[in-house]
Structure formats: structure tokens, C-alpha cells
Write a structure and sequence with these properties.
Helix content of chain B: 40-55%
Mean pLDDT of chain A: 93
Oligomer: heterodimer
Largest sheet of chain B: none
Order of helices and strands of chain B: HHHHHHHHHH
Distance between the termini of chain B: 68 Å
Number of helices of chain B: 10
CATH topology of the domain at 293-462 in chain A: Cytochrome C Oxidase, Chain A
Largest sheet of chain A: none
Shape of chain A: globular
CATH topology of the largest domain in chain B: Cytochrome Bc1 Complex, Chain D, domain 2
Strand content of chain A: under 5%
CATH architecture of the domain at 293-462 in chain A: Up-down Bundle
Chain lengths: 462, 213
């Protein structure tokens, strides 16, 4: 694997920085959209009666900015950093990189404006207006060319497992995006459309976010811990397990629906099997850090990565239970699923993203972190907020599910949920407060005077 | 390197296609014999609520839709569905009744595949969250006036509600405009093909015996 600083000129640092900044801006936007939406549940929406800021539209801005703004930008930044270092080859073209950067931000703007002006598409996680979809697909193909070129040109003997994940994810993403946004919109009606949008929802998490997230973990964790991953064989089992079982699961989003039962049973079984694969990956990473646990205290990125992995194991274990038809009777349609989704998208991938922001930001601005204390406050506020939100929403979900099954009037489930929704709003404020500290810290770091010698990254000063 | 194309082909394309064929194409073939209905075909069966809508708001209705017939109903259904999607109604209201959790007692008959094989379900609006109740059996459970008041200010008729108000469905005189009439027509259409008496819980015995009320 490439040693860090000898390959610095392989990486277009400006491009990485631009994507990191864009990801942070989208992250902030997503947080506030989520907060506003949470206020609606307390009948205290800040913009009542404003058509362009209607809560339903705000919800879609929240999820789309999280997925395509924050996660996509941050992952592109992570891959722009990791791939050239792993392959010892630069990306295809810096100019293409900048073109992708601006195209992607334009797509985000168009999506935001489209959603707020009422041009959403009725595909969950694919609300991107239908006229933006072709541009997004072209953008994805360009990303594949730009980031795929160094992998194809690599002269390394065997490909490191990170590159396996990146290669597969780059292949999958465009296919998934096309399938999910076009087939149910134009050709596959009703139950079939639901099966395909189920695949889309799940493939987006499993074939785009998860493989890139794990690919980056396989890159950053051994470098920061300064030792190799515990078992290369286990990492390949994890990779092939993900590749085979993830694409079979989508229908589990619509259990007990008019989709044929064999598809529903198949989705449940493959989801439970994936839990075994998940365990192999988790074992591999925890065996890697064994003997170096001190890093969790001293090294902020490692702390974020391993916290995210604990969330990953929690959420996957939860999934193996909630996917069963027994659990589905109660928890489907409730806040339980909302809690699950937040733990996946933020507790796992958000934490990992924050982790490599903490690692990369001092490097791309050439200055040490402005304040380590703020980084620590940021960690605890975020972790506490996220954990409480998860517990709160899961509990609310159980309450709603049992209320509905016992045929209480619908109003009872709403009235009983309000305290939980209030708690959710408070935990959201904790998360936002943490991120505001972090954004201030990023800004102050970038503004601080350049140190006399080259800045050491957080992982070493910490 | 030869291993990159291998990974891309086997892990990337093959597994994706396997999942897509088993979980998408096979269910698709399974329902291929069910005829696909266009909005125009659907609009031939006009529920009573649509005629009632023309009487409830005569001037507004005439201005936006003319006479209540199959053509104007198709127009209202299309626009109503657009509004339903634009406002993300489907993120808080589902559109299918499951055979579990007493949902048939609360909402009405369990959903079946042919109900959804039509142009109004391109894309489907099953939904994955219920903040408010399921809507696929909503037709006729409440009056047009109830819906108008509810869209204007949900808490007028449901004090506990956390639904947003939709003032832009109404004109300067607070009477439903083209979009308001469309969304009411759409909601009153949902389930009109399998209409059940309101509050089916009171009809539980008949449903359990399999009698259609």
C-alpha cells in the first residue's frame, strides 16, 4: 500500500477540498431541513402556509441532501484521496474532476429547487425530479471514468480489497440509479414497481453507500493504526458476501404487500444471511484493532470509525430481526424504521464520513486542527444525540405498532407519539449543535495562520 | 489489470442482474397477464363523490373541469396524483392494506395486485411510513367537505393532527381551486372500486365471514 506523503502529488488536493466543503454545506442543509420537518410533528413548523417550504417537500430535501449532497460528495472526496494512493496512478483528468464537481453541485441545486417547487418523483430516495435523472446518470458515468481509470491502469500485483469495493460500487451505482428511477416511473406498475423501488432503496444503501464506506474503512483504518488488516481472506468473504446477498434483499421494504410471497421470503432469508457476512467484516476490524485500543482514545478518526462500526453491527443485527415477518407486523410503517434509517445513514456512514473529514481536513488545508477540545465536544454531542434519537424512535415505533394493532383510534397513536417526537427534536438539536461546533472548527482551522513546518494530521498530533 | 474487469463483471454486473431478475423480472412476469389500465379506462367508473364535488363547489368546479364526466374525472385524477406526489403525501400515508395487525378491520379489504396494475400506479405510491392512516380504502369514508376543511386546516376536524395545512389548494375566497378539487377527487377515488362502509371496525363480523358490505 502507498505510503502517505510520498504520493501527495498524485492526489488533486484542491479537488478533494472542494468536495469536502460541498459535502459539509449539503450536510448543514440536510440537518436544518430535518430539524424543520421535526417541528411539524410538534405542530410548530416555522414556515406555516408557505407553499415552497411545505414540510412534505422539506422532508425530501432532508433525505436527498443527505444521500446525494453529503454522502456522495464526501465519498467522492474520499475516493479521490484513496484511489490514487492505492494505485499509484492519478485520476483520469483533473479538468474532468472539476467538471464533475460543478456538475454534481448543479444537480444538487436543481434537485433542491425541483423538490421545493413541486416536481418530485414518487420514488423513495429517488425524489430527484425526472428531468434531473439523465444528467445525474451522465455525472455518474463520468465519475466512473475518472475514478475507474487509475484502478484499471494500476500496476500493483494484486488489488487491495478497498479497490474491489470501489470497482464494484462504481459498476453498481449507475445500474441501480437507472433501474430505480426509470422502470417504476414508466414501465413497471404497482406491485412490480414496488418490488423494483424496494431494490432501488436497498441497493442504494447496499451497493453504493456500503461498499464505498467499507472500501474507505479498509483504506484508512490500517494506515491510521499502522498495521495491516487482520485477515485478507475474511475481507474477501465480506466482499463477496455483500455482492451476492445485498442485491436480493430489496423486496423486504414491502413485506405483506401484493408482491409475490416467494420474493418476500427470498428477501427475508437473504437479509438474515447477510448478518453472517456483516459479522465476518466486524470481526476482521475488531481483530485488527486488538492490542491498539488506545488509538480509540488518542486518535479521533479511529474513534469515529470504530463508533460507526459498533453502530453498523447494531443496525445490521436490528435488521436481521426487524426483517422477519413476525417483527414486520408491528414495526412496519412506524418510527422504528425511521430510527433504523437514521442509525444507518448517520450513525454509520455519517460517522465514518466525519472520521475521514477529521483526518483529511488538516491535510487539505495544510494546518493542524484549530481546537482538539471542540473535536471532542463534537464527538460526544453527536454520539449522544444519535444514540438517544435511535432509542427514542425505536421505542416510539413499538408504541405506534401496538397501538394500531389493538385497534385504538388513530388519534391515540399520534397523541402518544408527541413526547417521543419532542425528544427526537431535542436529540436533533444536539446533533446540530455538535455539527455547528465542527463546522466552526473547520472554518477556524482553514483561517488559522500556516504553521512553520508542514502540518501533521490529526491522527498524529492527537 | 485483468482482475478489474473480472470484479466489475462478476461482482458488479452479474450479482446485480441476478437480484434484478429474481426480485424484479420474475414478479413482473407473474403479473404480466393482468391488463394494464390507462387513466381513461379507470375514469369511466366515476364515484358518486365526484358528482357531489361538482355540486358542492359548482362555480369552482365548472371553471376548472367543466362537467363531471369521464374526461374531467381523468383530468382531475391525473392532477390529483401529481399534487399527491409533489406534496409528498405518500411519505406519511401508505396505500396498501396488509393481511396482518388487524389492518383489514381498521381500513378495509386486504390489497391485491390487480388493484395496482394501472397507469395511476406509475410509479406506485405504496409508501413506507404511516404518520397518518392508510388511504387505499379512503373513498367515501368522509365527505368532500370534510376533506376540504381538512386540507385547509387539519386541526379543524382532527384536533390531534400533525398534518400540515395546504392553503394553496384554495382560492382567495377559501374555496378549493383546481388543485384542491383534484386532490379531493383523487383521495375520494382511492378504493372506490372496492368501497366499504365507513369505520369498518363496526362491520368486523361481516368482513371476517368474507361478506362484502
Amino acid at each position: 500500500m502507498a505510503q502517505a506523503d510520498t504520493n501527495r502529488d498524485l492526489v488533486n488536493v484542491g479537488l478533494v477540498r472542494a468536495h469536502l466543503i460541498a459535502g459539509a454545506v449539503a450536510f448543514a442543509g440536510s440537518l436544518f431541513a430535518g430539524l424543520f420537518y421535526a417541528f411539524q410533528f410538534l405542530r410548530a413548523y416555522p414556515f406555516p402556509g408557505v407553499e415552497l417550504l411545505s414540510p412534505g417537500r422539506m422532508r425530501m430535501v432532508h433525505t436527498n441532501l443527505a444521500a446525494y449532497g453529503m454522502i456522495a460528495n464526501a465519498f467522492i472526496a474520499g475516493m479521490l484521496w484513496a484511489i490514487p494512493r492505492l494505485t499509484r496512478r492519478p485520476i483520469l483528468s483533473d479538468r474532468l474532476g472539476w467538471f464533475i464537481f460543478w456538475t454534481w453541485q448543479a444537480i444538487l441545486m436543481a434537485t433542491g429547487v425541483g423538490l421545493l417547487t413541486g416536481h418530485a418523483q414518487a420514488i423513495e430516495w429517488g425524489e430527484t425530479p425526472i428531468f434531473v435523472d439523465p444528467i445525474a446518470i451522465v455525472g455518474l458515468v463520468l465519475v466512473v471514468l475518472n475514478l475507474g481509470a487509475p484502478i484499471v491502469r494500476s500496476q500493483e500485483r494484486g488489488l487491495y480489497v478497498s479497490l474491489w469495493y470501489f470497482t464494484a460500487a462504481l459498476t453498481w451505482t449507475g445500474l441501480v440509479y437507472f433501474m430505480g428511477n426509470y422502470l417504476p416511473q414508466f414501465w413497471a406498475p404497482g406491485a412490480t414497481g414496488a418490488a423494483i423501488t424496494g431494490l432501488f432503496i436497498h441497493d442504494l444503501v447496499g451497493l453504493f453507500v456500503t461498499p464505498i464506506g467499507w472500501g474507505l474503512m479498509y483504506y484508512f483504518v490500517p494506515i491510521l493504526l499502522k498495521k495491516p488488516i487482520w485477515s485478507h481472506a475474511l475481507s474477501l468473504i465480506g466482499f463477496w458476501g455483500l455482492a451476492f446477498f445485498y442485491p436480493l434483499q430489496g423486496v423486504h421494504h414491502f413485506l405483506f404487500s401484493p408482491i409475490p410471497m416467494y420474493a418476500q421470503y427470498g428477501a427475508v432469508v437473504s437479509t438474515v444471511i447477510l448478518e453472517i457476512v456483516v459479522t465476518t467484516v466486524i470481526v476482521n476490524f475488531f481483530a485488527t484493532i486488538r492490542g491498539s485500543w488506545g488509538a480509540v482514545v488518542s486518535n479521533m478518526p479511529i474513534r469515529w470509525f470504530y463508533t460507526g462500526m459498533i453502530c453498523y453491527f447494531t443496525t445490521c443485527l436490528q435488521c436481521a430481526f426487524q426483517v422477519t415477518l413476525t417483527f414486520q407486523q408491528i414495526i412496519h410503517f412506524t418510527d422504528w424504521v425511521v430510527g433504523h434509517a437514521h442509525l444507518v445513514m448517520f450513525g454509520v456512514f455519517g460517522f465514518w464520513i466525519i472520521g475521514f473529514y477529521v483526518e483529511l481536513w488538516p491535510r487539505v488545508v495544510g494546518r493542524p486542527w484549530y481546537s482538539r477540545r471542540l473535536l471532542v465536544y463534537h464527538y460526544w454531542l453527536t454520539l449522544l444525540g444519535m444514540s438517544l434519537m435511535f432509542v427514542d424512535l425505536v421505542a416510539a415505533g413499538l408504541l405506534q405498532g401496538y397501538s394500531w394493532r389493538s385497534l385504538q383510534p388513530w388519534s391515540d397513536s399520534i397523541i402518544a407519539s408527541v413526547p417521543f417526537w419532542f425528544t427526537r427534536m431535542v436529540t436533533g438539536l444536539m446533533i446540530i449543535a455538535g455539527q455547528l461546533l465542527f463546522f466552526y472548527n473547520m472554518w477556524a482551522t482553514a483561517r488559522s495562520p500556516v504553521p512553520a513546518r508542514v502540518a501533521a494530521p490529526a491522527s498524529q498530533t492527537a | 489489470m485483468e482482475r478489474v474487469p473480472t470484479i466489475a463483471l462478476i461482482a458488479g454486473i452479474s450479482t446485480f442482474l441476478l437480484g434484478f431478475i429474481l426480485m424484479g423480472v420474475l414478479p413482473w412476469l407473474g403479473q404480466s397477464k393482468i391488463p394494464m389500465k390507462s387513466v381513461e379506462e379507470i375514469a369511466r367508473d366515476i364515484p358518486a363523490d365526484f358528482y357531489q364535488l361538482a355540486e358542492d363547489y359548482p362555480e369552482e368546479f365548472r371553471r376548472a373541469y367543466g362537467q363531471p364526466d369521464a374526461r374531467s374525472f381523468a383530468k382531475a385524477l391525473r392532477l390529483g396524483r401529481e399534487v399527491y406526489i409533489a406534496e409528498a403525501c405518500w411519505h406519511c400515508h401508505s396505500q396498501f392494506v396488509r393481511p396482518v395487525s388487524n389492518e383489514d378491520l381498521r381500513f378495509g379489504p386486504v390489497s391485491t395486485v390487480e388493484e395496482y396494475t394501472n397507469e395511476m400506479n406509475l410509479p406506485h405510491l405504496f409508501g413506507t411510513r404511516r404518520v397518518g392512516p392508510d388511504l387505499i380504502r379512503e373513498s367515501g369514508k368522509r365527505s368532500n367537505d370534510w376533506h376540504a376543511a381538512h386540507f385547509y386546516e387539519p386541526r379543524f376536524v382532527a384536533p390531534y393532527s400533525v398534518m400540515p395545512s395546504y392553503r394553496w389548494f384554495f382560492d382567495a375566497q377559501d374555496r378549493p381551486n383546481e388543485r384542491g378539487l383534484a386532490i379531493i377527487a383523487y383521495v375520494q377515488w382511492l378504493g372506490s372500486w372496492r368501497r366499504t362502509v365507513p369505520e369498518t371496525i363496526y362491520n368486523a363480523e361481516a368482513i371476517q365471514k368474507g361478506e362484502q358490505p
